[in-house]
Automatic annotation (TrEMBL):
InterPro entries: GP_PDE_dom (IPR030395), PLC-like_Pdiesterase_TIM-brl (IPR017946). Pfam families: GDPD (PF03009). This is Glycerophosphodiester phosphodiesterase. Coiled coil: none annotated. Gene3D superfamilies: Phosphatidylinositol (PI) phosphodiesterase (3.20.20.190). GO terms for biological process: ethanolamine metabolic process; N-acylethanolamine metabolic process; phospholipid metabolic process. It comes from Henriciella algicola.
Length: 323
């Protein structure tokens, strides 16, 4: 799928609007910078929950590129990298949201600037004026011409292209601040909020009941408690970890119209991505999809969408929903 095709089909999917209604490194504490975020009606356009329903019903899969799909010359958490991934046929980017010392939300995974930029020092102690002048470094250590983007930059890109962003809150910022930026960009149908605990899931559901989220789902009693606490099952994607596929759980959740997510990403040499590709055969990924997985978070998105990756039947099923 090329960028023009994906951009047009994602932006035009399902014209009905929605009515309002790895392990965590983040802390539950809220940033002191807080704004009033009552939930207005979502802007007209794609209905993201219906898109997920369609992919589940058609037997497709939404591939999420971990940290935005870094590749040689394209660093993690960069808008230019998102476009590179979208051009390759990857519709979803998992990205990390931090906050500078002076309150600017921008994309950064680490607590320090050292690994992924030409700067150094703690993110929380650095102002945006300094951060914005840095250059991003790709995973091979090469300095690129790209600057760290603000969250607003990323959201503007998503609205323009139809891309989907999974937003992973880092400890320097708050859900309330992130959701405020999503509202300001009119990107409600372009984002999924990642949560790492029941408390975080309930907080997001209270602040923004109209937004989709991922939340960990354990046994049936835990699932019931999560929903009783305020999470709308129509806005929930059940996160089921990165270690062992849960075929029975995925099928059970699907019977309740809840989509499941699983990650093959992680530490190089230990992640399932490396194990699954060891023989060059992606059959393990096929098994995940055939057993009900709807969202696959991966460090090898390009291999999955290229020749020799996923069979075309799964790609075509997803495209049907994206049209």
């Amino acid at each position: 799928m090329g960028a023009l095709f994906l951009g047009s089909v994602l932006a035009g999917c399902n014209e009905t609007a929605t009515a309002p209604a790895e392990t965590s490194e983040t802390a539950a504490a809220e940033s002191p910078v807080e704004t009033d975020q009552s939930a207005p009606p979502v802007s007209s356009g794609r209905d993201l929950p219906r898109l997920f329903d369609c992919v589940r019903e058609e037997g497709g899969v939404l591939i999420a590129a971990h940290r935005g799909g870094p590749a040689p010359g394209f660093p993690e958490n960069a808008v230019e990298t998102f476009q590179h991934a979208l051009d390759a046929g990857i519709p979803m980017m998992e990205i990390d949201v931090a906050e500078s010392r002076d309150g600017v939300l921008f994309l950064m995974h680490d607590r320090s600037l050292t690994r992924t930029t030409t700067g150094e020092g703690p993110v929380a102690d650095t102002g945006w004026g300094e951060i914005s002048q840095l250059r991003l470094v790709d995973n091979e250590g090469r300095v690129t011409s790209f600057n760290p983007p603000t969250l607003a930059d990323a959201l503007e890109w998503a609205v323009k292209t139809g891309g989907i962003l999974e937003l992973d809150r880092k400890e320097t910022t708050s859900f309330r601040n992130i959701i405020g930026e999503v509202r300001g960009a009119g990107a409600e149908n372009n984002v999924i909020i990642i949560t790492y605990s029941d408390e975080e899931a309930w907080q997001v559901a209270e602040i923004a009941p109209d937004l989709m989220m991922t939340a960990g789902v354990g046994n049936r009693a835990h699932e019931a408690a999560l929903l009783e606490g305020g999470v709308d099952p129509d806005k929930l994607v059940a996160w089921t970890g990165t270690r062992e596929p849960s075929f029975g759980k995925w099928r059970g959740l699907a019977s309740k119209d809840i989509e499941s997510a699983f990650g093959t990403l992680g530490r190089p040499g230990e992640r399932l991505d490396d194990q699954y590709w060891a023989d060059g055969d992606p059959s393990e990924y096929v098994s995940l999809i055939e057993n009900g997985l709807v969202l696959l978070a991966t460090d090898t998105p390009y291999r999955l969408v290229s020749d020799g990756g996923l069979p075309t039947q799964f790609i075509n099923a997803t495209e049907t929903c994206l049209r």
